[in-house]
Description:
Elements: H1 10-13, H2 25-29, E1 34-41, E2 46-50, H3 52-58, H4 71-81, E3 83-86, H5 88-92, E4 107-110, E5 130-137, E6 143-149, H6 158-163, E7 181-182, H7 183-198, E8 205-211, E9 216-223, H8 229-237, H9 241-257, H10 268-292, E10 295-296, E11 319-320, E12 329-330, H11 343-363, H12 376-397, H13 401-410, H14 412-426, E13 435-437, E14 440-442, H15 449-463, H16 471-478, H17 492-512, H18 515-529, H19 537-550, H20 556-569, H21 586-601
Amino acid sequence: xxxxxxxxxxxxxxxxxxxxxxxxxxxxxxxxxxxxxxxxxxxxxxxxxxxxxxxxxxxxxxxxxxxxxxxxxxxxxxxxxxxxxxxxxxxxxxxxxxxxxxxxxxxxxxxxxxxxxxxxxxxxxxxxxxxxxxxxxxxxxxxxxxxxxxxxxxxxxxxxxxxxxxxxxxxxxxxxxxxxxxxxxxxxxxxxxxxxxxxxxxxxxxxxxxxxxxxxxxxxxxxxxxxxxxxxxxxxxxxxxxxxxxxxxxxxxxxxxxxxxxxxxxxxxxxxxxxxxxxxxxxxxxxxxxxxxxxxxxxxxxxxxxxxxxxxxxxxxxxxxxxxxxxxxxxxxxxxxxxxxxxxxxxxxxxxxxxxxxxxxxxxxxxxxxxxxxxxxxxxxxxxxxxxxxxxxxxxxxxxxxxxxxxxxxxxxxxxxxxxxxxxxxxxxxxxxxxxxxxxxxxxxxxxxxxxxxxxxxxxxxxxxxxxxxxxxxxxxxxxxxxxxxxxxxxxxxxxxxxxxxxxxxxxxxxxxxxxxxxxxxxxxxxxxxxxxxxxxxxxxxxxxxxxxxxxxxxxxxxxxxxxxxxxxxxxxxxxxxxxxxxxxxxxxxxxxxxxxxxxxxxxxx
Length: 606
């Protein structure tokens, strides 16, 4: 816990929150993209969780601020973020609210393309239960976008578009269209997003979760830029070049402010090329990481489920699998989702659409999307994707950056050969075939490759570098709970692959240095990277259920500490030095033990 000096003026201490008042540059730059709402104070909230670490990173709180929820801080958070919109239903029914409870500035819901809407051009779709709290300028001039999920029913929800009427916020007759969010959604976002952030993913993060009772909550989400591809694709679909150009200009301006783009070309053509090259790189590398980390994100053509930098959003549909369950599909009633391996093509199609978009801006001629199927960005995407796949595997083995660069520079073909035999085991599926699971269908993977990557270097060090695991022992290490005896029957082909796996593994080790020294480095790194207790989507869901049950005994301070400890427990970065608070309170300690047990139980699941 941080220990800060006492401050005389608590109002000054929290004055940075005053920047967050609903105003955002997009409201002036592109008013046609915005549905503007008056906002009023929402009574009855309690602080369920506040992310002190993120608040300090942003500059909302001083770096030496005590990480304790004080009455003054709680008051400021509720004043700033406990809001609900005055929507169309309220206006049509002549509802009156005390002027002193209405915020001085309007807040925006934004329009963007959404696959599930009847209109496929983004005219009626967008933020259905969220408004943007505005923009915050923090440390070093970095800007942050903030939005609140669960702030009331807007006119952009699927329910309004499908049923052709406006809904009262909180209407119990409609689920998603009621404009509220559930408290467990907020905790899921907080837990999962901090784990993803800690492990190097761009993601929206939960700054605050409010509890209104009855399992209803509100989640304040933060990222340096909350724009999605779908925001841009709406104007592309509508062939509105003027609006599209304004939005692109605004996005580039924010990228420059956040020092993502440096040395920006002076010409529009040069800027558009820089943007397309950057997007190609981001989406190729992100989709490769999703595939190798077994992250299901449900990418699709509308670009709704991801941020412009490939960042993760909307954790309701995010999964991190324990094994390579590459045939899992989420059942969304009207359709099944994409699979993990299909995400590459979806990401590539998004880049293809970006190529179409920037060409449209340059030429004022909107060409057919098919004309960009052989665009140079498509070739570049494939090259970057394959490079990142190689990097991912070498890092999972436990090679450090120097070793990885050497292998990629001089021995790429050897890396590729190991990738092939690794994939033979990783992609092996249960003979049971396709089965129904709780929220969709799946054909279970049967081997846990993290286990062999963690155990093999230790065994080689203990037995000698010339030793080999026999086939039975190898299979016993990688065999998951989904495998039956027929699945792991030692055929001649499988025995050959087991031998090949170990030979190629040792060859890569020998190529980068003294075998015993390299194995020692790999052993230490791999034990963290391939942690036995790695969280899955099912584990997060179960953990959140336990947290919800334990909440009466846990304060907001406790929740912050529990989430921080759990996130540290899920660190997979061998280069990150962790600082732990060993002065745990008994309630938190018992809860953490339960959470660790849950992660272990669900380690191979969805």
